[in-house]
Amino acid sequence: MTFENLNLIEPILNALQTEGYTKPTPIQAQAIPYILQQRDILGCAQTGTGKTAAFSIPIIQLLHAQPVKGNRNIRALILTPTRELAIQIGESLAAYGKNTGLKHTVIFGGVSQHAQTQALRAGVDILVATPGRLLDLMNQRFIHLQHLQLFVLDEADRMLDMGFVNDVRKVLKVLPEKKQSLFFSATMAPEIMKLADTILVNPAKVEVTPAATTVNSIKQAVYYVKKSDKKSLLIHLLKEGSIDRVLIFTRTKHGADRVAKDVNNAGMQAEAIHGNKSQNARVRALENFKSSRTRVLVATDIAARGIDVDDLAHVINYELPNEPETYVHRIGRTGRAGASGTALSFCDAEETSYLISIQKLISKSVPVIDNHPYPMTAKDFAAAASTVKEKKRGGGNGGRGNWGNKPRTEGSSNGNRNASTGRSSSNGNRSTGSSNNGERRWSNKPKPSVA
């Protein structure tokens, strides 16, 4: 299938050709016809599937079919959780709609509102907004939505994760009752479905990659490593030379800053991106990474939503996330739109329970790489377990106490290890998936979760 088969107008087809796009991704092939039929949409799609174009392209076509007479009013609202994602959507609208004469603007917090209000006064057809700044400018009467025809709620699951559900409900209360609504989320938990039910009317359902699965084109691997050795392992991998650009995830803002500083101190260019950074600093860091002026970008999970970098081959989980769904979102930053990619994870003793949860969610074992200079030993695991027990006795939370994931004991034979159990196999045979670089794929996968 090509974009010509989707009954798109010539101005959009020409813009797509200029961008180098000829074939729609599965989410685009499914969603675009429904949206052009003016159906409500319930879409489940992971990052990297082409979701932004799936709603941007038909919105442009629908609005272009209704020429503006007189003042421009906001006819489409796209609500998204982060500044980075809002900027990305704005760039997509500019690229796909450049031959149509439609106008759009992007508003978000953390910067002066002056330029945003000037654009709103001049008149726009499509508004891309984060919830906080949208409500703020609505209260100041810079934004009026009575002419709205199309509403998009993008990354609904992340909206809830970030605590924006009340802001979203406030926005919904002022929207016209008669409108076309498009709802997109990477996951479809019960609370997400409950929110969708308040927005959509007889929606067409589109789903590309099922929730809680990982893209098949992404090669995954895990390194067992002591927390104190993670810095050294990261520098070792970066200096090997096989990693060009890499996006690194940490759980905290402080951790992102620390990792970026460590990489810079090792003589490689790195920047951190998170909520404490100014908007200008975040945009500059992202642009430097996209243009390869910066080799390493370190990000927290919330800040990473909206990072869309072509040909990003590597993602590293410096710290495993405590929510397994977040792992899926993280590694989806590579292997986008069918490209190949590699996702590496560092797992210390206190993170083994996180790894177990991740493998249950994705219904597969992550191959272990133990051919590296900083492998964990059984002694390391035992020491970490003892530390956590002491913390629990003292009333601290100390992490999770599942210590079944141990690598083989020092000096033991080269038996198989499974990433979900960490135990040596009894027969000592390597699986057929082993390779010369120390990577092994283990046969005893966790059971798929019951739907």
From TrEMBL:
Alphabetized CDD domains for the sequence: DEADc, SF2_C_DEAD
Domain DEAD-box RNA helicase Q: 1-29
Alphabetical GO biological process terms: response to temperature stimulus; ribosome assembly
A Pfam family of this chain: DEAD
Region (Disordered): 385-451
Broad EC category: hydrolase
GO molecular function: ATP binding; hydrolase activity; nucleic acid binding; RNA helicase activity
Record SUPFAM superfamilies: P-loop containing nucleoside triphosphate hydrolases (SSF52540)
Enzyme Commission code: 3.6.4.13
Gene Ontology terms: cellular component: cytosol
Residue ranges of every copy of the Helicase C-terminal domain listed in the record: 217-382
Domain Helicase ATP-binding: from-to ranges: 32-206
Motif segment (Q motif): 1-29
Organism superkingdom: Bacteria
Record's keyword terms, sorted: ATP-binding, Cytoplasm, Helicase, Hydrolase, Nucleotide-binding
Low complexity biased stretches: 403-437
Reactions that this protein is recorded to catalyse: ATP + H2O = ADP + phosphate + H(+)
Family per similarity comment: Belongs to the DEAD box helicase family.
Protein name as it appears in the record: DEAD-box ATP-dependent RNA helicase RhpA
Native source organism of the sequence: Pontibacter arcticus
Lineage: Bacteria, Pseudomonadati, Bacteroidota, Cytophagia, Cytophagales
